[in-house]
Design goal:
Elements (H helix, E strand, L loop, with lengths): L5 E5 L3 H12 L5 E5 L10 H4 L17 H6 L2 E4 L2 E3 L4 E3 L5 E3 L2 E4 L3 E3 L12 E2 L4 H10 L5 E5 L3 H12 L3 E6 L6 H18 L3 E4 L3 E7 L2 E7 L4 E3 L2 E4 L3 E3 L2 H5 L4 E2 L2 E4 L10 E3 L4 E5 L4 E3 L4 H15 L11 E6 L2 E7 L6 E7 L4 E7 L5 E7 L5 H10 L5 H4 L12
Parallel strand pairs: 1-2, 1-7, 2-3, 7-20, 9-16, 10-11, 10-16, 11-12, 19-21
Antiparallel strand pairs: 4-5, 5-6, 8-17, 13-14, 14-15, 18-19, 21-22, 23-24, 24-27, 25-26, 26-27
Length: 406
């Protein structure tokens, strides 16, 4: 690869840093420019709602590379914006940088619903380290927190706050937490988990406004007329992919993000997209999948940068995410936007089980292991096989998951 080439990466999170790393690992000796919006070096985001709030990790612990790495590998860190028609990235001083290949790794931002009072002091969103640091400073023992939304971020913060002696109320519009990701049956497991740890969980609840006094949040007013008093409010109702640059570029959009093929190439052959914004063709499932998961940010850059270097490749990893809440550790793998039923292997009441999402032919679409380890590879194999399974054997803890594939 000629050293005169310039590859630009827009997005300074985990995906952007891993892309720069992959290019250098594959002997690209051209110019790499990494445009990072935040003032911090690229870092991983999952610890923000997990280990950081629990006091187990600091920013340095989940920073991808230290500052010396970027200098040692001739990677420029800058801020900028995109002009795809001219193959340039605009800089704050109105200069431009031409690119030969471009990778969009712009991630996502917290959704901000139009709730009256949502711009008051004391209303928090969690997407960046600065967000987490501010939230961390108010989660003191004896204080109270109201969480709007029982998704992953909301529940992880609720767990961390309870473990710090904070009184927590979580309000959720759906019938159970995590319905969109897991369905009602498994969502109930998480509802019981949080209630067992003292969270006031209010389901099928509508927030009418965030109440304020002298410009500062004091809690929630609910649609049924009830109120929730709180020293701080966290709004955690999902994420919005940062696709503005892609839209300005005229790239093909759909499925909530930037349309890319299995090699993660966009409709412009010189532009690739990874992470939260990429709606990628999946070779196993035969559909486009866009997920806001850490695993994509970690692994997709290797495939995208191979394409940028003119090498073949496709992203065929199964969607994967994990959570840690109180004494519950969980891994989920697969893709089950629709399913026939969920079956269980193990003790659901004791929160030691594996759940399987099945289609009408008893094929495993997805699996989730809760406080049961060393089964993830077998679950992945069941999904990849696309073969009907014996449900009785699948749900019998004494049977071998590996034997179901024989």
């Amino acid at each position: 690869m000629a050293s005169s080439q310039t590859f630009v990466i827009v997005g300074g999170g985990l995906a952007g840093a891993k892309a720069a790393e992959a290019l250098r690992d594959n002997d690209f000796d051209g110019h790499i420019i990494l445009f990072a919006e935040e003032r911090h070096l690229p870092y991983e985001r999952p610890p923000l709602s997990k280990e950081y709030l629990a006091g187990k990790k600091s920013l340095n612990d989940f920073t991808v590379q230290d500052a010396d790495w970027y200098g040692d590998h001739n990677v420029d860190l800058r801020l900028g914006s995109l002009d795809p028609a001219a193959h340039t990235v605009g800089l704050p001083d109105d200069l431009t940088v031409a690119y030969d290949k471009l990778l969009l790794a712009t991630g996502s931002a917290s959704r901000r619903p139009p709730i009256p009072g949502s711009d008051a002091d004391g209303v928090h969103y969690l997407r960046t380290y600065d967000d987490a640091a501010t939230l961390n400073s108010v989660l003191t023992e004896g204080s109270s927190l109201a969480v709007v939304g029982a998704g992953w971020i909301g529940l992880e913060v609720a767990a961390g706050a309870r473990q710090r002696g904070v009184g927590v109320t979580v309000v959720e519009a759906a019938r159970q937490p995590l319905v969109a990701a897991l369905g009602e049956t498994v969502g109930e497991v998480f509802a019981n988990l949080h209630r067992d740890h003292g969270v006031d969980l209010r389901l099928e609840a509508h927030v009418e406004e965030i109440t304020t006094a002298q410009g500062r949040a004091t809690g929630l007013k609910m649609g049924d007329g009830s109120t929730v008093a709180a020293d701080a409010v966290l709004v955690a109702v999902g994420a919005k992919p940062n696709v503005e640059l892609a839209e300005q570029a005229g790239l093909s959009m759909g499925d909530g993000g930037v349309l890319v093929d299995a090699s993660l190439r966009t409709s412009d052959p010189d532009i690739y997209a990874v992470g939260d914004i990429a709606a990628a063709e999946h070779p196993l499932f035969g559909c486009r999948i866009r997920t806001e998961h850490w695993a994509n940010a970690l692994k997709q850059p290797a495939v995208a940068t191979a394409g940028m270097l003119g090498k073949p490749g496709e992203y065929a990893e199964l969607p994967y995410f994990f959570t840690d809440q109180y004494d519950l550790g969980m891994e989920y793998v697969g893709h089950a936007p629709s399913f026939e039923r969920v079956v269980f292997r193990g003790d659901v009441a004791a929160r030691e089980f594996v759940a399987f999402w099945l289609d009408g032919d008893n094929r495993v679409l997805a699996g989730m292991n809760v406080n049961v380890w060393d089964v993830l590879d077998d679950v992945k194999s069941l999904i990849r096989s696309k073969a009907p399974v014996d449900v009785d054997a699948l749900t019998d803890p004494q049977s071998s998951l590996a034997d179901l594939l024989s």
